[in-house]
Structures are given as structure tokens and as C-alpha cells.
């Protein structure tokens, strides 16, 4: 099965923790602080790889992580930065937030590389907190936490022209004759199981990219057959070529086929059915005229190409009789399509970013919970994973360390939250096993 969708979890690297240490040298009684900074965590980066055409690399693996930054060390040693996570995808891959479907990035056009999640910032070592009045700080800053996101990858093939139609009408043969593509061709349904791209070069030096979209069936817009797997690949095409079997070699009516395909496009997305269209009446070399000049139902036989022109000409849809096998009519078809493209915008459709991870994911602010004790109105609780970690990095037995921790609570909005709950001077604040009296 063609892999054009995947759901994965990506995680950036955690920032390394700052280090607490002091110079220890012979004949130096009280060395100053020399704790180094932690390294930055690795970013999550998506990069377009022109050698890829599917998302198969993401179908059998669920989670991808950048590496964490190393903690700082003694003697002002800076921790090593974590390695970025580089995820390679085909051009045309749309990255969405799994929960809502909002677009995070569209790896199309000039967007060849994009950072999706930034790694955590490394924490400062205690050497940064030395002042004239506090020459021996016994605390350091913890590294910023890693960030995790569940995303959906969706490949939308980038092509100027899409060849659409029912199975076995000759789309692959047509693409192989007008371009450099070499698709597998055989006389049975669903030979093509993934979109094939080919570059059509014209004598005047112009050209375009054409895509053979695998054969659709009725109900494709509701997911029948392989419908949903491939309808999305028509989205970026500027012109659609309806390829129909004009000879009805399998008993299909070419006029009805065009209408049915259009119905499937409109049911999936109305914008698809409104794209400029051309009809390629294929297999004209196999058209046979009944000896009695009548159809099996007794009605007068009419050349199917004439029927197509009579039906769709008034709708401004050109019909070209062709034979993908012999090459008859192909030159007129591709030059007409090229003239249509020249009248349309050259820019590839690119989806605008709707979700910005840096604005939604926790950054420098603490995640915490505050509540008033149910039994004691003068007792307030504060808990949270980062608070617990900060307690482990701060020497609260020293006056300066405790003052630093109070400022930390203030800067991150915890004291303000307590005031909303009605805390007053003299009330007790409990942070896990730590108790202290609140004074504004």
C-alpha cells in the first residue's frame, strides 16, 4: 500500500541543567562559583528530500526524539548541546497537529527546511548568580523541559497536471508516452498503486509536471476502494485531464465516466471539481463501427468522440481524440494543456501555517497547581513537577538561596496565583515537604 499518511510523536531535547560548584585551588581559601551552563536540547527539524516519494519511513515507527543537552560541569565547563532530530520527507508533505488537523508546516515550494519544535534552553550555572553581596550562590538553573507533539504527516503530490479516470483507461500508458516517467503498465485493474510523476518537455523549451493519479471507483469520496488514498493528490494540480476509454473496451460509457468522476471529486472537495479540465478520449485505435450502425439497444450508433464533444463542448471542456499506444493526438493534447497552464498562476498551492507550537507549548513558565486546604483556611498548597525539581537545585538553608527561591516563585506567577486564592500575611504555604510563612 502506498504510504502517503502517518501519525507520529516528535520530542525535542531537554536543556541540560546548570551546575553548582566552586573553585578549589591550593592556597585559595574561598574560591568563587565556577558551575558551567547546561547545553541546549536538540531541535525537531523537517527537511525535504527529493529522493523520497512516500512516507514509508514513518509507518512502522511511532516516536522520534532529539537528544538532550548535557548538564554543565565544574570549572565553567559548558554542557554539550543535544543533536537535532532531522526528519526527511518528500516535497509536498503537510504537517498537521494530530488533535485538530491544524497546519504546522507545508513542505512545498521554497520551504525546504523548518524547525517544528525547539529544544529546551540550557540552565545557567551558579557562576551567573555571583554578585558583590552574594559571592557564593548555591543554586543553579535547571534546563528547560523537552517538548512533545503528536503530528500527522500527509503527502499531497506536487504536479501541474493530474491524469484522472477509472482503472485501465490508459493513464499510465499516456504518461509514459508524453513524459520521462516509466510506470508499470499491465492490462488489469489497479496496476498503479501510487501516483507516478513525469516531466513533460515541449519543443519550445517549456514543460510541466504530470501525475498519474491511480484509478478511482464509485464511492471513492467516501473512502471506497483506494479513494481517500489518492484524491488528496489532485489537490495541488492546476489542470485535470479526464482520461476515458472511448472504445468502451470494458463496456464503460465514456460520457458517464466523466460525470461520475466529477461527482466523486465534488463529494470529496468541491474545489477539485472546479479545476480546469480537458478530456482525453483514449483508445481511438480500438473503436469499431457496428456493421448495422446501431448500438446493442437498437439506437443509432454515434462516434464516442463526437458524443463527448457534443456533451462537453458547450461546457468549455475541450475533447482530444488520442491513442496512448500509437501516439496519435498526443502532441495536440499536451500543447493545449501547456497553453492552459500559461494562463494560470505559476505558484504551487501552499497551505498557510495555522498552529504555532512555540505559542502553545509550555516554555519558560512553570506548570503548577495551587489550592486552599479544605480543612485549614490558612494553609495553601503548591505543587508541580518543575517546582519539585527547583527545590532540588536550591539550597534553602541559606538566606540567599531562600530569597532566590522566593523571587523564582514571584517571577513565574505562583505568588500572584496564591493572592487570587485569598492568601494573607502569616498564612502557610506548603510545597511538598517545604513549609514557609507568606509575607507580602
TrEMBL record:
Residues 159-342 form the OBG-type G domain. InterPro entries: G_OBG (IPR031167), GTP-bd (IPR006073), GTP-bd_Obg/CgtA (IPR014100), GTP-bd_prot_GTP1/OBG_C_sf (IPR036346), GTP1-OBG_CS (IPR006074), GTP1_OBG_dom (IPR006169), GTP1_OBG_dom_sf (IPR036726), OBG_GTPase (IPR045086). Mg(2+) binds at residues 172, 192. This is GTPase Obg. Monomer. It is found in: Cytoplasm. Residues 360-440 form the OCT domain. Its EC number is 3.6.5.-. Pfam families: DUF1967, GTP1_OBG, MMR_HSR1. One of its GO terms (biological process) is ribosome biogenesis. It comes from the Bacteria. One of its GO terms (molecular function) is GTPase activity. It is an enzyme of class 3 (hydrolase). Residues 1-158 form the Obg domain. GTP binds at residues 165-172, 190-194, 212-215, 282-285, 323-325. CDD domains: Obg. GO terms for cellular component: cytoplasm. Its cofactor is Mg(2+). The keyword Cytoplasm applies. It comes from Porcincola intestinalis. Its main location: cytoplasm. Belongs to the TRAFAC class OBG-HflX-like GTPase superfamily. OBG GTPase family. Keywords: Cytoplasm, GTP-binding, Hydrolase, Magnesium, Metal-binding, Nucleotide-binding. An essential GTPase which binds GTP, GDP and possibly (p)ppGpp with moderate affinity, with high nucleotide exchange rates and a fairly low GTP hydrolysis rate. Plays a role in control of the cell cycle, stress response, ribosome biogenesis and in those bacteria that undergo differentiation, in morphogenesis control.
